[in-house]
Amino acid sequence: MPKKSLAQEFIEFINRGNVVDLAVGVIIGGAFTGVVNALVSNIIQPLIAAVGGNAEVKGLSVIVGGQTIDFGGFISAVISFLITALAVFAIVKGVNTLNDLKDLAARKAGLAKQAAEGNAPEPRICPYCRQEIADDATRCPHCTAKLAGYENPLD
Length: 155
Known about the structure:
The chain is mainly alpha-helical. Helices cover about 60% and strands about 10% of the residues.
């Protein structure tokens, strides 16, 4: 078996389905991050600031050896993370609820279909050739025998 070139191996790697799926996931994740950040910074944090005064914790810093340790900035980052996590949780919970409702509807539709199929009458069988025939047939299409309900004034 001849050795593959680096370019051939790279093309095989890129053409794998999971690599393409991963790339799409990263791109969608980046776009989703923008949406969640906009939700948190433009809607949720201003609401919190309107109710509680200010969404950021300021003034909690200590200077050690000429370096500033900003506890307020860290607490603000933690609060922002928790708000973002809550927003993502709410979005995922909503999407999961919609998926559950969709699955429930599909199952109910399937159950209705199965119930209708379960209550279907037994197929009609010709008493002579034992082949299945239509319910409204008066003659068997297989052996041409006259069946119950056959009426022909010329016979």
